[in-house]
## 1
Amino acid sequence: MPHNVTLAIQRQDERQEALDAVVIPATDKQRHDLGRAAVGQAWMTWSSSEETSKTIKFMLPQVAATESEWRTVLQGYRFAIRIADRHEATALSLPLPEQAGLDSREKEQASVLYRCILEQCQELNHIRHVRLLARDEREAALYTGLTTGVQGEDQA
């Protein structure tokens, strides 16, 4: 991984230490207020939370059934990572699709998302640790398997 960025996959219900920034899906009210114009976008909000003061909201499509919707999902992840880095976060928590409210991903789509995250990490200046949050054991296992596969390809 370039720039010494570490990537970890963790189930949402596991104990987590505080990170510099967290990415969370937009609320229903934000979806209503911002509408389709904001789908695929990400933005920084500030929080008085003891855990982190940097919260990045991103608005993914509510479903990702078409190729266009899936490209919008990838765009949302890219933007969220860029914004965290721009605000000099060194550690970031990022929900995987099911944790972010999307339907189960096929292995091929999960692989595309994982590679998208890896590629975005190549351009980072500040982030050194990205924690990918899975909704359950199945989603965690899917992305853990991709991690192993990508590391194997890189070493070949």
## 2
Amino acid sequence: MLISWNEDTTLSGRVYLELGTDRFTFYQQIGNLTSAGYVPYTGTCRMTADSENGTILSGAYSDGEPWAHSYRVESMTDTELRLVSLDEQIESVYERVVIPDYVKEAPVTLPSRSESVLPLL
């Protein structure tokens, strides 16, 4: 679960990120959707070693559109994932939690990356 973005812990909603070996699921409930439910995004992801930046996390949504940013993995422990976007140097901190069933069971369906709801990644 996202607990801090750009050093701000007062987020206007919730975000859950589920990372697999080469796939991700991202559940987002931010802004005008805080009362509507979670929007799911899926796709592929990969971690690669980079001699200049260390481990890089990048991905693409299931429609083939790449994430808005690639991220340097600052730290990954049993309890926390700390990412920094390569281009803007914005830090995202995720705390390891069990994603509640209600988040996965009743997602909101929206057009892919609609103007009003842009995915955080």
## 3
Amino acid sequence: MQTSPIKLTDVIYNAANQSFEACVTVYGETGARKYACAIEAPITMSFEDAAKGLRTQALRRHAKRGGLHSQMRRFAPQQRAPRSRFDPVRWLETLISGEQRNAA
């Protein structure tokens, strides 16, 4: 089994849910994916054990390629067709000349 590099950030203990929560980034061949992970555990659990549980949860999600994740991709904007520069004076002249043509 090949392991991917993992980074845990924003590890907190949520006392309301009695769980450790973290943003876990898994680096793979296709880039980095971030998973919001949480494990139910007492506050007395050691940080190393909590981190191990969070890593395991993230790797399971990453292997399934399912669930909610975040991924950064480079966006290449598409080239737009060139337009002529807006000339307000010419636009006003067109409006004025158009009104005279339609006058009774």
## 4
Amino acid sequence: MTDQAAVHAWCDFLRARIAEEQRAAEGAASAPDGTGVPVWTLTEAGEPELGVRAGDDVLLTVRTGRGPWADLVVAEHLVRFQPRRAYADLTAWVNLVDLLDHWVNFDLAVANELLTVVLLFADRYRDHPDYPGPGQR
């Protein structure tokens, strides 16, 4: 069982990491003309430059080690994890951390159950120097 101070430390740590990722997603999402967050789409297969497009602008041409041929799988992956979607996922994660931070003040058993889920997401930060739990490298 984890105590309240440890849970609050996790919440503080995760909010800081999530904020860093949100800033990165916001920067990546800037439209070339500064008008807002573009929705990324794939260019049409067979075009000379297969890649990621926002409106009429090709943001990224996708090439791999297979020579001059573009890789549709890589392009689809980039579109799937576009900044708008990444930002929405991070916002949902903030809500989960807020829920954990709330419940630790009222029911430690519930908080510990939530913490097991939150720690699954937090695992990607285990190499961070401020990581508050075991497994830090």
